[in-house]
Every structure is written in structure tokens, then in C-alpha cells.
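The pair is quoted verbatim below.
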Amino acid sequence: PGIVDIQQGVVLGGADNLKGWEQVPLATLLREATGLPVYVDNDANLMGLGEYMAGNNAHCRHLLFLTIGTGIGGAIFMNGQLYRGHGYAAGGVGALMLTYEGKEVFWEDVASTAALVRQYRQQAGLDEDAAINGKVIFDQYLQAEPLATKVMQEHSRLLGYGLAGLVHVFSPEKIILGGGISEAGKPYIELVKAATQRYCMPVYRDTLCIEAAQMGNKAGFLGAAYFAMQQLSAQQSPS
């Protein structure tokens, strides 16, 4: 998580769940500890790269990958290349701002899987340690359980609201959704797609393509391997 200077291998910060990880020379620390070449990148970028290269998406020139879990992370592919932006900070889509119930919040604070589970627990009166996750809630939604239906409809609405904004900005050929809840498959994707179309301008609706990630938990490992090979190749190429 967070912003990573891939040239220096330094974690710059930017992740609320990694307090104290600012200006950490992670590549150097690991290189000194292992004696091996080490390259560091953001987790969402690597998951997106894994999906892009191994998930039958390499034909797409413009693609958005989102991982939905404790937050919402993103990887942006423009003209067939992972777009990193100024300061390597591109892709922080979870920090998009919106007004929800009269408060300004981050998109991921209300549309992530963690937010979905939190809403279900609160409204069901469950303890924090109750065994519940997004997939369980979605399975109950498919069985028309009233509370699951209520929170899933709100989850998909909020997710679609943000996705429509990203569609308007980037006009991607395809959006790939990763994270555990995406493993619910086509019914979940169709629910989110319908919500996204509701907020899209007409010109985008008919061509909107949203798919579930294919690589699952392997995406990050595959992306890390591709990234390491890219970095090694760049170092070995004559200047």
C-alpha cells in the first residue's frame, strides 16, 4: 500500500494502514538483508500488472484495474503502459472525495468491502469479531435476505457512482475488479455494472465493459515477477 518511488525503491508514504512508513528505503533494507536484487512497487500496481499481462487483457490499450477490499486501490493502463503519474502517485482512486450522509468522505470509506461488512455488522447488531465477509453477504443477497439486499444495493450504488466518474475521466476499454468479493463472479459484476451505467453519460453506457479479475490471489505475485523482469532488463540494457 502507499506511494512507492520505484527507481529508488523507497516507500514514500500515503497509506493510512502503514503508520510510520514514510521515506522507508525498503529495497535497500531487503537487499542488504538478503544479498539479492530487490525491486519495490505499490501492491495495486502489481496486481493490475499481473491481471494485464496474464489475464487475457494485453490487447487492451486503456484499462482500469481496481482492487476492492479494506480500501480501494487502482492501477491505470494508458496506451498499453502502466501510468504512474507525477511522483509515482497515480492510482489512488480510493481517496476520491464525495459527500455521503452530509459528510465529506473518501470513496473507499463507504464503497470498499470493509465498508460493506461494517454496515452489515452495525445494522445486524453483530460483534466486531463476527465471522462475516463480503462474499457471505453477497451470497445472502442472492437468497433475497432483506438486510443483505439493503446493504448490497447501497454498496453497488456507491461503487458505481465512483466508477462512473473514472469512466468519464479515463474512458477505458475495460474495467477489471479484483479483491475477494469479486470472486462472487458474474452476478456481482452485473450488479456493479448496472449501478455504474446508471451514473454514466449515455455515450459510455453501451460500450461499458466491467469484468472480474481472473488471476485471484496470484495477480500480485505475477505482477511482481513481471515488474522484476522489467527492471532487470532495463538495468542490463546498454544505455
Summary: The chain has one domain: 43-219. Strands lie at 3-5, 10-13, 63-68, 72-78, 81-83, 97-100, 103-106, 174-178, 210-212. The chain is about 45% helix and 15% strand. The first helix runs from residue 26 to 34.
